[in-house]
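hey can u check if this looks right to u? its 312 residues, i copy pasted from the old doc so theres a chance i mangled smth
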Amino acid sequence: MKRSRCGFTLVELVVAGALAAIVGATIMFTLQKQERFYGSAAELMRLRSQLRDASDVLVADIRGAAVSRYGLALMTDTALELFTTLGSSVVCTSPTGRTLFLPPSTLASGTVLTSLLALPDTGDLALLYSIPGGNPDSAQWIEARISGFGTRPLTSSCPSTTAFTSALDAAAGKIGYALTLPANPPAGLRSGAPLRFIRRARYSLYRSSDGDWYLGYRRCSPVGPSICSTIQPVSGPYLPYTKAGGAAAGISFHYFDSSGVELFDVALSTRIARIDVVLRGETARAVSLVGDARQRYRDSSVVSVSPRNRMR
């Protein structure tokens, strides 16, 4: 009696192997395609994040710039220098010397009386709202250099007797601030007077040592000739500089007055009512999202900003 043997023929094994190879190749191709797609999408997201980072920084500082008072110390196609608002507060008590005392940043009640993007220092200016003789019609902002700025306990800066703080603030460990000026403040400065801190800064498109172009930031001397510190990168890279802010420039600024006329003369900078910021970038490598040829992708962002403190 003959027994039949179970198994696969050579032809069946060859066909099965071929089908497995086809399925495996298809899976690998799909995975590679998806990997390229997500890699390209991540590259585009990085580019748009770079554009958004610069846009957020410039919009915030331009919007808070003291344009009507100081104008722009520098206004070119790829650089601007402005006096931007660093923070604000109120005076707790009528000053008796060169030091002014300010309330904490946030009170126990949640009220914000002192708002600071960064602690002011000797490279900044303070604008004090003075009312000489108590006559509101003669009120004016007085400019003063900052000699010192630091924290102080509430008992010696802004105690509850000033009515700006309470016992809850002291119990919560809140601290006030002390602002020291080079000389006694004007006589018209009273308790509750608002004050602002401003900082002179320059933003510009610059070429770094790695050969790429970035948005750079410099702090500059608050008064007198423009003397700025070493440039620091803010975001980038962007497309290179082109003459007169051409169509391919990585960053370009355009300045307009209230009637929409473009301004080029820094002597007219106090008339600026709007600044258009154009940002252009390119992916670091070639990308492809929809099966087209792999190439470096370019994107741009255009924002129009009106300074709050502009001429009306």
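The longest helix spans residues 10-63.
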